[in-house]
Amino acid sequence: MAKRTFANKLFLTSALIGAAAAISAGAAAQELDEIVVTAQSRAQGLQDTPISISAVPAEKLADTAIQKSEDLQFLVPNFTMTETGIATNIFIRGIGSGINQAFEQSVATYIDGVHYPRAQQTRAPFLDLERVEVLRGPQAILFGKNAIAGALNITTAKPTEDFEGYLSGSYEFVDEEYIIEGAVSGPITDRVRGRIAGRYRDADGYVQNATLDRTEPQREDWMIRGQLEADLTDTFQMRLKAEVGQFDVVGRHIEVIGEQPSVAPGPFNGLTYGQILAGGFGADPSVLNTTVDGVRSSNGDFSNNETQTYVANFTWDADGYEIRSTTAYENFEYDELCDCDFTGANVFEAYLQEEYEQWSSELRVTSPVWDRWDFVAGLYWQTSDHNYADQIAVPANSILVPAINALTMSSAGLAVSATQAAREATTDSDLYSAFAQVNLRPVDRLELQLGGRLSYEKKDGTRTLSIVDLNFDPLSMAQISAPLIYGNLFGITSTNLTDLSMAPVPQLSVPATGLLAALGELPVADSLKETRFSPDVKLVFDATDDLLLYASWARGYKTGGFDFRANNKNFYPTISDSFKFGDEQATNYEIGGKLGIGSTAEINFAAFYTKFDDLQISIFDGVLGFNVGNAAAAEIKGIEFDGRWAVSEYLTLSGSGAFTDFEFTDFENGQCYFGQTPDSPSLPGLCDYTGKSNQLVSDFQGVLTADIHFPVMNDYEISSVTDLFYTSKYDASSTYDPALVQDGYATINTRLAFGPQDGGWQIAFLGKNLTDEQFLQYGGDTPLAGSTFGAKSNYSFFSQGRTLWVQARADF
Fold it and tell me: Is residue 491 domain-resident?
């Protein structure tokens, strides 16, 4: 983990201040290109949009080899995204959704006006985009009531009036990765235009799996998108879009680190987890490697993901009013194998399957902009079916079989051999909402924006779990006591956890009746109905032609739901109480400004204070499950800034940064890391994290960019883009384990390109993470190491190191 001093912060923070001073002293005049966004439904200049927003245009995405949403975090401060053991975390300003497939996303993702609500969908690759906008703070009015942390607003490239296209290819030398992408666009008839784009990627990976002797994660993805745009009349336009894709991953970038000897009495005392696995149970010797060296021990993982999206968009220009209808169908599914003990030992495997199907339709009316007012209003409907299943499997050769025998001094382990805990969960949802934003200009230079969204949602959910054999058949007589063992050792309740169906196992202390009282009974089903109003008020003041100031207040809500992944009722009175969790609320106060300095520079800032109540928290139970509840309250305050300066005809500097102060004001039921002394004042066995920051939250993040274009040989140019990213330290685990704190670090990306000044073709060389930082992205307690064997061990996701690319592109 890299260490950096506070000087990095001062350097990045002072960069924009120094730029402003130099401009005011009289720098060379050079115009900046305008950045256009659609964050408020209309196309607006970024400097005219009273929101804390970062926009990344298509050229920047291509130049920096941004391939998916996760890559944006090194260009956009206060946006964080990372993979975890079984899910994806997305955060803006320190707020996101935890590890549970049932969670709605606090950071809403929209592509061409269509909502993509599942976290796994954000792993899909980017293809043929026009721009990506990252909106910070609650965005309920125009992006749905769940967008309480912010939104990703992604716009794809549209069909064009003229025939055009491109073909690009990239190759990475260090880890042997290549990407091919292309698009063709143009007229089909006088009134019909089309565009088709495709992409393929293949990557060998950058972590060595010593158990299987291969590099991981190996990635292969492809996507095809077709669009058809037709002018049905002079004022009525139709756009149809079809997109299909697949992204598959073999293996993961996880290493086990930080092992300490077992403190539990018995046969494993004094041994590390790796020593227990290798010496006690004959696991592959690779489990003994617990250093951060780009080498992992695993029996293998995979993730196969398929996406389909079909969109019909109709736009009618009615005397200056734009009436737009957007109807979409989405289908997303994945099939995963997680070697979720995260070691090369045969301990257990987790299989996960998810399928999500959604229909949505929105009718939106955008008025003309009159002298004194204008408005946007609409209706939205969405229905979805969400099916989830997972299986925690104990294969016949699992070390758990002899381990349970040793721990219980019996043959109880034989009962769990070749069994699995098979879970199924479903949610059906119907959502209806109406929204409007009215912009009033009572006097010149002053605008009052009043917005609101009224939403009604109904959800029905079910969950069941049974202990069965590996073929999903009923247990044999030799396995009949398996549900009792799963309950005692792993805290897993099941439909077949009954005294009548199980032989006694006296070495396991709690009988089935006691376990059912402690863990809860399955199956469980419930429903919820929520009606919520989300208001948003902004006061916008054009102080001068070049300075816009704004103040805003907004309240948002994120829908509750049903806990798909809990193995028991946790601390709730019944499993029904634990199954359903309520909505969370956010109230945001913000002031900001956008300053243009002539046509050569701009500086923007925002200061915010956000209060969150009833935060939906998902906490790993230290064994094999996650528990969800409305567990916490938090306050976040901070300052965000960005700016650009056209220093000369050849050089443009830009920068952005964010100072963030996150504090849980009430969080008494956090999961302790292994070895931590529980200190919750209200719930035995848990830890009080009141006063702590959230995981993955840095006090400061910043980006500084230098963009150089220099003409050579009359009609050609050499261009160079360098991005410096810095973040201060952060907690990589949700349990605040001191062993999983990432110190501050800096990365540098540089691209050098050559081609004609008027385009046509370009060849470039790109270095990413030139400082070769291997930083910790996420971590936690290694499953079963502490809870079963009494040994401390951590699993950790580490970043990719330095990569070197060659890129070529031809435009026609």
Answer: yes
